Amino acid sequence: MDFIPLSIPDVILIQPDVHRDARGFFFESWQKNKFAKAGIDQEFVQDNHSRSSKDVLRGLHYQIRQPQGKLIRAIVGEVFDVAVDLRRSSPSFGKWVGVNLSSENFNMLWIPPGFAHGFLVLSDVAEFVYKATDFYAPQYERCILWNDRDLGIDWPISGHEPILSEKDSKGKLFREAEVYL
Prior knowledge:
With 181 residues, the chain is mainly β. It has one domain (2-19, 29-176): Jelly Rolls. Helix content is 6%, strand content 40%. The strands form 3 sheets. It has a 6-stranded antiparallel sheet, with no helix packed on it. It has a 5-stranded antiparallel sheet with strand order 9-8-11-6-13, with no helix packed on it. It starts with a strand and ends in a 12-residue tail after the last helix.
């Protein structure tokens, strides 16, 4: 299993060792000792699973209290996954990283607490699973507008507007958002 820090080094791309043969494949998606050795020594308290259609964009979500670290992967289809650093004390505050996660590449992404998270579905359908380090707390949930110009996220939009929830379409601008210290 390879753990690769991205341009924001606290966000880590995880490439598992996938064993394939004529029957299919097998890989470890979580192994406490390997993750701890790579600096991801977290207790996960909740697993989440979502299914979305092509061009659905979810995010940019975070919890201002009870911030969640997330271990993310796509188990069906492909998504473009984004993490935005909301830690004011960080040298990468306001910066973003994005990677493609798919059922074909088996890659996972570790996003620590203190980040906003979102993803865009690139395939006809995608199923997305993630482990969280804290419980969902809707009273603390916040949303930053996906296309905020100050963030400048380079979403791979396919020529038309993405499909958004009402909540996501009303996200705040980055400069108006609550952030972490």
